Amino acid sequence: MWSGQPHPDEGHLPPLEAVPVPWKSVGPCRSHRECPGGLAESPGGEEAQGEEGPAAAQLDVLRLRSSSMEIREKGSEFLKDELHKAQKELKLKDEECERLSKVREQLERELEELTASLFEEAHKMVREANMKQAASEKQLKEARGKIDMLQAEVTALKTLVLTSTPASPNRELHPQLLSPSKAGPRKGHLRHKSTSSTLCPAMCPTAGHTLTPDKEGKEVDTTLFAEFQAWRESPTLDKTCPFLERVYREDVGPCLDFTMQELSALVRAAVEDNTLTIEPVAAQTPPTVKVAAVECGSTKTCALSGLARACRHRIRLGDSESHYYISPSSRARITAVCNFFTYIRYIQQGLVRQEAEPMFWEITRLRKEMSLAKLGFFPQEA
Q1: Which of 254, 246, 206 lies closest to 371, judged by CA?
Q2: Which of 103, 146, 258, 351 is the most buried (most CB within 10 A)?
Q3: pTM
Q4: Which helix (H) or strand (E) holds 296?
Q5: More reliable by pLDDT, 79 or 14
Q6: What is the DSSP code string of 310-373?
């Protein structure tokens, strides 16, 4: 029977240790239908429910504690893994920083070495430039001195050319043109080499004598003048150019065409190479010399013509020690050709500063001298 008075213990939960509930008897019973024994709802259900409440709360606490422990363990493992990963990454970063630090130190050393080498190289280049500048200044000073000397020589040579031409040589500048009585005593043979600076005036065929009257009519041949102007634009000694080819064919070849063909060819080559030497023969010294083509035992036979003539000169070809005695006619023919070659060498070297027409007439006069010498006209020696 339910009484109206409340139970003295109703509403107060007994302590947990006062209710010994075995572990096996605690189950997840939430309704009367799930309770063991299939107990039906009875007036004593509230008391049973009041007894099962503390057990369920204790079970929930245990479950919460177990769950928190599991979560704590899993979180600890996760944090350990993350820490381990972070430590590995940090270690890799440290290694990378150490490597980059070494690279930076190496680059700094290389940069310092490169800077030092560049400064050293720059100083070396400056020293070399200063030395080269000093050497260049010295060379420039020497070159200016040489230029002044060469200008003086050119001025003297121009004076020589202007005052001593093949037509009228200056006898004071060339004492070998003086007569034996005026030139003084001679010993042996006086030597005279066919250089471009001295041969032409010395070997002038006219030697101051006029073969033809000065007053004569002149007219420029347009073909010859055109060939000369073309040659004058670029002076050369190449015999294949039209101007020199004509002179060779019409004047040089016939003038040096002597009876002794072999010696004539040697003389022509020596004249072209400017290696021919003509020497006067002293009357008191008649040497006996053997020649390649003709034996000249005395000065009475010309080595070029083969005729018996009084030979007052002899020629030497290049550095050869053999001498060939020549007659006055042969000498006039050789010197006429030498005068022509000397004048065109003057033009080639830029020593003749004239207009084209005066130069052409001078060359024409020299060609005329070659033609006259070939025909046998030559001046009598004093």
Answers
A1: 254
A2: 258
A3: 0.46
A4: strand 295-296
A5: 79
A6: ---EEEEETT---EEEE-HHHHHHHHHHHHHHHHHHHHHTT-----HHHHHHHHHHHHHHHHHH
